[in-house]
């Protein structure tokens, strides 16, 4: 089951291959249902996206995640994570970092984030 989830992650990345120069994925299986996946994507504009997920396919929410989009100078554009900080947020532990601000956020899916990145890429070209 976790292997199927890992395949879904890779297929999701490939859906955006028109904007991608390269990507790398590292996977570790803990059990039939649980595992760790880490990835890095280099986009054609030299921006980067790094992510990690710890997932148990028996439950909807991820155990842990971090999705970070960086510009060509390695400056963070945004980061989603579920670190146990920012307890005052209604969406705790889920939140989004944009610059110096912390925003409420539901747990995102990789596809949603890649759509968000695609919008940044289109804005940059305009």
**Head-to-tail CA distance between termini:** 42 Å
The run of helices and strands is: HEEEEEEEH
**Helix vs. strand class:** alpha+beta
Helix fraction by DSSP (H/I, runs of at least 4): 10-25%
Q: What overall geometry do the principal axes of the alpha carbons give?
A: globular
| Unreliable parts | none
- For the largest sheet, list the strands in their spatial order: 1-2-3-4-5-6-7
Rg over CA atoms: 15 Å
- Overall pLDDT, averaged? 95
Number of strands: 7
Describe the main β-sheet briefly.
Answer: 7 strands, antiparallel
Proportion of beta-strand residues? 35-45%
User: Helix tally?
Assistant: 2
Plain-language structure description:
The protein has helices at 2-14, 110-125; strands at residues 20-29, 34-43, 48-56, 64-70, 76-81, 95-98, 101-104. A hairpin with a 4-residue loop joins strand 1 and strand 2 (34-43). By secondary structure, the chain is α+β, with helices and mostly antiparallel strands. It is globular. A 7-stranded antiparallel sheet has the order 1-2-3-4-5-6-7, covered by helices on one side. It is built from 2 helices and 7 strands. The relative contact order is 0.16.
């Amino acid at each position: 089951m976790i292997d199927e989830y890992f395949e879904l992650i890779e297929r999701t990345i490939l859906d955006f291959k028109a904007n991608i120069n390269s990507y790398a994925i590292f996977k570790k299986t803990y059990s039939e249902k649980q595992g760790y996946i880490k990835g890095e994507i280099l986009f054609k504009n030299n921006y980067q996206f790094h992510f990690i997920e710890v997932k148990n396919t028996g439950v909807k929410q991820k155990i842990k995640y971090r999705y970070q989009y960086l510009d060509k100078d390695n400056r963070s554009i945004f980061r989603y994570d579920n670190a146990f900080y920012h307890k005052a947020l209604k969406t705790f532990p889920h939140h989004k970092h944009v610059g110096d601000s912390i925003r409420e956020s539901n747990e995102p899916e990789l596809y949603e984030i890649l759509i968000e990145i695609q919008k940044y890429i289109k804005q940059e070209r305009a």
